[in-house]
């Protein structure tokens, strides 16, 4: 059994996890796991099928029957590309409500671990380093201050033609991050074997450079 390197990036909403993880995986030629997309996909499927976020059994049933094709690029539900649809704030909101169910998290556990393949994996989410890949090669807690994260999300939404005030986004992100940090099942937390990377004031290239530098320093054989 050969050791497969894993870099985990956990952190609050709009800290840049997805963007950075994708670019780092490309730079290293590694696979990429967007675990948030998995929760968002279950959320979207449940919403479309009229399942209430409070209905734990209903939500777990949806996840169990979900045929997730998790190709690196497009994310499909019932054969339709929903890569953009799952990014809606409403979907993130619903995802964070159902993410509290430990039965759902157990249901999704192996599907995530299965993606750990040579030459390596970069995984982003909330519990990548703490629960899914506890023996990861490098664990990073990626963050930025609340205002900057809200501004980043605002710009991202505006580019898609979606209007939302920064003040509203600050409140929405805060509520979601609190729920994700305070829940009992796999909460978002900075563990002691995790490196803090505060990206406030750093651009994407700078953050990618820092992560690659940390990985090179981690003693991995590359
Ligand atoms: O995955 P997560 O919600 O943590 O964040 P993301 O969707 O990757 O990033 C949110 C937005 O911030 C994207 O539009 C990124 O391009 C932007 N970003 C940035 O401006 N500066 C960074 N250092 C990282 C991300
Ligand atoms: O892009 P953003 O950081 O806003 O969210 P995301 O990573 O797409 O995740 C959406 C929601 O799924 C989060 O608010 C979490 O509640 C949940 N999630 C989780 O519980 N565990 C993960 N590993 C990833 C996401």
UniProtKB/TrEMBL annotation:
Nucleotide-binding among keywords: yes
Key words, A-Z: ATP-binding, Cytoplasm, Kinase, Nucleotide-binding, Transferase
Residues engaged in binding ATP: 11-19
EC class of the enzyme, as a word: transferase
Reactions catalysed, as given in the entry: dCMP + ATP = dCDP + ADP; CMP + ATP = CDP + ADP
Enzyme Commission number(s) of this protein: 2.7.4.25
Domain Cytidylate kinase: 7-214
UniProt-listed Gene3D superfamilies: P-loop containing nucleotide triphosphate hydrolases
GO MF: kinase activity
Family matches, as InterPro entries: Cytidylate_kin, Cytidylate_kinase_dom, P-loop_NTPase
One Pfam family it belongs to: Cytidylate_kin
Segments forming a coiled coil: none
Location in or out of the cell: Cytoplasm
NCBIfam families, sorted: cmk (TIGR00017)
Family: Belongs to the cytidylate kinase family. Type 1 subfamily.
Name of protein: Cytidylate kinase
Organism whose genome encodes this protein: Nitrosomonas eutropha
Upper taxonomic lineage: Bacteria, Pseudomonadati, Pseudomonadota, Betaproteobacteria, Nitrosomonadales
Gene name linked to the record: cmk
């Amino acid at each position: 059994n050969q050791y497969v390197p894993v870099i985990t990036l956990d952190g609050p909403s709009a800290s840049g996890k997805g963007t950075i993880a994708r670019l780092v995986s490309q730079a290293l030629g590694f696979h990429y796991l967007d675990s948030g997309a998995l929760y968002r996909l279950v959320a979207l499927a449940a919403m479309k099928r009229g399942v209430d976020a409070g209905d734990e059994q209903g939500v777990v049933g949806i996840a169990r029957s979900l045929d997730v094709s998790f190709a690196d690029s497009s994310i499909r539900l019932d054969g339709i590309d929903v890569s953009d649809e799952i990014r809606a704030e409403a979907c993130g909101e619903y995802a964070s409500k159902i993410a509290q169910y430990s039965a759902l998290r157990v249901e999704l556990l192996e599907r995530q671990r299965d993606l750990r393949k040579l030459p390596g994996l970069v995984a982003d989410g909330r519990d990548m380093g703490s629960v899914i890949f506890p023996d990861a090669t490098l664990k990073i807690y990626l963050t930025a201050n609340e205002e900057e994260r809200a501004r980043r999300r605002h710009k991202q939404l505006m580019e898609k033609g979606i209007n939302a005030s920064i003040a509203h986004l600050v409140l929405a992100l805060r509520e979601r991050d609190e729920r994700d940090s305070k829940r009992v099942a796999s909460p978002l937390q900075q563990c002691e074997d995790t490196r803090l990377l505060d990206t406030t004031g750093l651009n994407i290239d700078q953050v990618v450079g820092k992560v690659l530098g940390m990985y090179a320093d981690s003693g991995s054989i590359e």
